[in-house]
Amino acid sequence: MGKRRERRVAPSSDRRQARDNSDARVDQFREQAASERRLFTIFILFFIVIPAVSVFVYSVKYAPNSDRTVTSAHQDDGLVKTDISYQEILNDNSKVSENASHRHYTYPILAYITPWNSKGYEMAKRFANKFTHLSPVWYDLKSQGTGLILEGRHNADTGWISDLRMKGDAWVLPRVVLEALPKELLRKKKLRDKAIDLIVSECKEMEYDGIVLESWSRWAAYGVLHDPEMKKMVNIELHDI
């Protein structure tokens, strides 16, 4: 009888062990499935949800602060059209909005004013509140012998500047074109210092808010921006100014 009992116990033990192994495999499978679900959730969170929320927040926070009624208003008065002919451009190029005070955008807006177009001066005064920076095209920095000269004071209109500042808070930044020979100007420290002194002194004396420095045409002709050494000197001069 004892032997028969021993033979019966062995299969029961095997079955329990098999069940234990099966339960262990099930638990392992469940843990693996749970781990995969967690990884999938993390993937969704970091690569889909967070970028989507970031894009939404960015679009809300940094979208141009514009009135949607502006476009429709301009469409009503004919300033904005999808189909336009050259004749309409010739006839209506001087049309402007009647609203001369409200700025629809928060980012900086720069306008150039040329001395040969008197209407530009009037438009700048009329719409002074719509601009943040106004740059009258007045000055040229030129080579003179072995030195430099800043020309253009005769173009400056102090009365116009006073009128602008009474109407709005736009900065007046006269344009200064660098006509001096770039290789001489950039490589010789004395000339660079002289250029800076001329420009800064003019700004202080005329009470400008700064300048717009233009050099692309002359520098492009001399290949300045393709010369690593010259580009380095440009950065030095701009930093000094």
TrEMBL record:
Region (Disordered): 1-23
MF GO annotations: oligosaccharide binding
Keyword terms: Membrane, Transmembrane, Transmembrane helix
Spans traversing the lipid bilayer: 39-60
GO cellular component, one term: endomembrane system
UniProt biased composition (Basic and acidic residues): 13-23
Family the UniProt entry places it in: Belongs to the glycosyl hydrolase 18 family.
Name used for this protein in its record: Uncharacterized protein MANES_05G024600
Species of origin: Rhizophora mucronata
Lineage of origin: Eukaryota, Viridiplantae, Streptophyta, Embryophyta, Tracheophyta
